[in-house]
Amino acid sequence: MAGFPYFCTSNFLPVATKFSKETYLYWYELMQLIRQFELMAEEKYKMEGKIRGFFHAYIGQEAIAAGCMTATKPEDLYITAYRDHGLAIAKGVSVNSCMAELFGKATGNAKGKGGSMHFFGKDVNFYGGHGIVGAQIGTGAGLAFAEKYRGSENVVLCFFGDGAARQGILHETFNLAMLWKLPVVFICENNNYAMGTSIERTSNVIDIYKLADAYEMPGDAADGMHPETVHEAVARAVKRARQGDGPTLLELKTYRYKGHSISDPQKYRSKEEVDEYKDKDPIAQVLNMIREHRYATEEEIAAINKRVDDIVNESVKFAEESPWPDDSEVLKDVYVDKNYPFIVD
Amino acid sequence: MARQIAFREALREAMSEEMRRDERVFLMGEEVAEYNGAYKVSQGMLAEFGPKRVIDTPISELGFTAVGVGAAQNGLRPIVEFMTWNFAVLALDQILNTASKMLAMSGGQVSCPIVFRGGNGSAGQLGAQHSTAFEALYANIPGIKVVSPSNGYDAKGLLKQAIRYEEDPVMFMESEVMYGDKIEVPEEEYYIELGKADVKKQGRDVTIVSFNKMMKVAMGAAAELEKEGISAEVVDLRTIRPLDWMTILESVKKTNRLVIVEEQWPFASVSSEITYRIQKEGFDYLDAPIRRITAADAPLHYAPNLVAAALPDVPRTVKLVKEVMYLKK
Ligand SMILES: Cc1ncc(C[n+]2csc(CCOP(=O)(O)OP(=O)(O)O)c2C)c(N)n1
Ligand SMILES: [Mg+2]
């Protein structure tokens, strides 16, 4: 928690947080899986050209996915922006289908139709990767509306960036979500940059969690580089939402190690700044905890790493061996109506 | 003296020359200043004009578009860059409900001299939300003009014209994949009037009409056809609204056949409008039905083969030309 203000603008119910050995090992393995998946994918993009289009790495932000997962249930819904690989994998979208999606293959989680920015897994309650900055803030509230309407206890985790916090839709949605007490947790993954624009260049309000105050919505900031602090903050917000007390805005302070996308030369920040955050690497920190508390032997850690590598390598093989979508797919999945009369000249 | 410059430099020169001339002109958009442009169109402009006139905005398309529209109504001449036109959809309210209508609603009092510009259409495997070609959608709106150039030379002249002489809102649609294309331009300043199509290649047998990057497909097809002794005339629209249908009609009077190549979705597209106009004004000159190739009637998918299958290409254009000429294979 060092260096991060832990600030709470309203009263939260305390949630017991004692993390077990299993939790730490789960966090470690999940974060490793996300990181190794992306490192491999980046290589396939840069070295072999097997992946194209925009590619936004989650590397550095994995603790958010990890902490959110242990603070929610599988039935809870996640929706995010185009930086979506980490949350998709965390939710349980199969790694094979993620790599295949990047390759544009028919076996991808969106049949090769979405690519990096548009991973989906409705069966595991992952409602996607969205490309228009800020759009999913409103859509996420809509997912929550349906849960409340049906009387379920499920909660929606709705992720967006610090840049997205400057879109008008945030304000309309916050107002609606509070007015209707929707079971949604708005999670701003504040990695300090929107493309090349650092957060202080986008607003007078640098503490994004304070935007909640205008709607009397609980707002809270937490260190996003540790699964522990993420878990605690998310668990409190999720508990409120499940109880019918409505939405929360959480600002999780994090950092992306890579450029905005693969093509970003990153002239807007120094190498020192990036290194400073790499010193707080969430995976290294969790590994330290595991070692300190002897939650696993070195052999067991090596076994986890091997398991991760095997999954990632297998996903590449799977993607490479998978077929392209058939050309006829161009006019499929456009309408549910199978008899829709497309214009074909 | 002529020199070679890239499309993005042509745009930059157009903006910079007009900003040097007229204090009221300024540039605003996401990453236009300190980052020197998401696609480096505005490189160096912050250094030359300073932060008062080259302005980075937050990701707030509706908001900064509204500010641009208001500033234009109050005596300034803004250039608003959209990182791409896909994101201008958030600002459509300001363009359609305010910018395009205020002159009419105010009985001619409040005009809106503003230029909106940015990349438009597909740019490789960017998926459905980053690949829409918007010319036809905007061209449907009375009160605005729509420009869609195919090369840097035209882009420079048209953009200078839009900034300096147009008193109405202009939508200026570029293409990310053309920003690097080089072309020869003169040393001295020049302007190109909006609403004038350009006959890019003379021909006798068939007219091919296109615009923006699909001009490459049209020209590529014409070159292929030439090898087989078929002489295609190629018309580059350059401006979509107002539509220079007279130039198309003059060409059709000569060739009696018309093929349109565009990246729009087919329903109510630019080709639909051209087809209506030419059948009405030139029915007697046509020896075959007017045909077109558009983008597929679907969002653009990510996979490379689906992108290729969805967009117009040279082989399909060649084949279509042969069909309107009633040639076998
Ligand atoms: C409406 C809209 N405007 C602009 C863009 C281009 N764009 C894509 S990502 C991005 C930066 C977003 O930054 P942030 O919300 O902080 O998310 P991060 O990339 O840091 O995860 C921009 C400007 C877009 N996709 N959609
Ligand atoms: Mg950010």
Number of strand segments of chain B:
14
Give me the number of helical elements of chain A. Answer: 10
Largest sheet of chain A: 7 strands, mixed
Indicate the radius of gyration of chain A in whole angstroms: 20 Å
Q: Quick one: CATH superfamily of the largest domain in chain B?
A: Thiamin diphosphate (ThDP)-binding fold, Pyr/PP domains
Output the helix-strand order of chain A.
EHHEHHEHEHEEEEHEHHH
* Average pLDDT over all residues of chain B: 98
Q: Describe the biggest sheet of chain B?
A: 7 strands, mixed
Provide the structure class of chain B: alpha/beta
Catalogue the unreliable spans of chain A.
Answer: 1-16
Q: What is the CATH domain class of chain A?
A: Alpha Beta
Which CATH first-tier class of the largest domain in chain B would you pick? Alpha Beta
CATH topology of chain A, by name, is Rossmann fold
What is the average per-residue confidence, as pLDDT of chain A, rounded to a whole number?
Answer: 94
Query: What fold name goes in the CATH topology slot of the largest domain in chain B?
Result: Rossmann fold
Helical residue percent band of chain A: 40-55%
Q: Please tell me the total number of domains of chain A.
A: 1
Question: How does this model look, in words?
Answer:
- The complex is a heterodimer of chains A (345) and B (329).
- Chain A is 40% helix and 12% strand.
- Chain A is an alpha/beta fold.
- Chain A has one domain: Thiamin diphosphate (ThDP)-binding fold, Pyr/PP domains (Rossmann fold), CATH 3.40.50.
- In chain A, the strands form two sheets. Chain A has a seven-stranded mixed β-sheet with strand order 1-8-9-5-4-2-3, sandwiched between helices. In chain A, strands 6-7 form a two-stranded antiparallel ribbon.
- In chain A, strand 6 (193-194) and strand 7 (197-198) form a beta hairpin.
- In chain A, helix 2 runs parallel beside helix 3 (85-91).
- In chain B, 37% of the residues lie in helices and 19% in strands.
- Chain B has two domains: 2-186, Rossmann fold; 198-324, Rossmann fold.
- The longest helix of chain B has 15 residues, at 7-21.
- Chain B contains 13 helices and 14 strands.
- Chain B has helices at 7-21, 45-49, 61-73, 85-88, 92-99, 102-105, 135-139, 152-164, 214-227, 245-255, 270-282, 304-310, 314-324, and strands spanning 2-6, 25-29, 54-56, 77-84, 115-119, 145-147, 170-174, 182-186, 198-201, 206-210, 232-236, 239-241, 258-261, 291-293.
- The model of chain B has no long low-confidence stretch (mean pLDDT 98).
- Chain B has 329 residues and is an alpha/beta fold.
- In chain B, the strands form three sheets. Chain B has a seven-stranded mixed β-sheet with strand order 3-2-4-5-7-6-12, with helices on both faces. In chain B, strands 9-11-10-13-14 form a five-stranded mixed β-sheet, sandwiched between helices. Chain B has a two-stranded antiparallel sheet with strand order 1-8.
- Classes of the chains: A alpha/beta (345), B alpha/beta (329).
- Bound molecules: thiamine diphosphate (TPP) and magnesium ion.
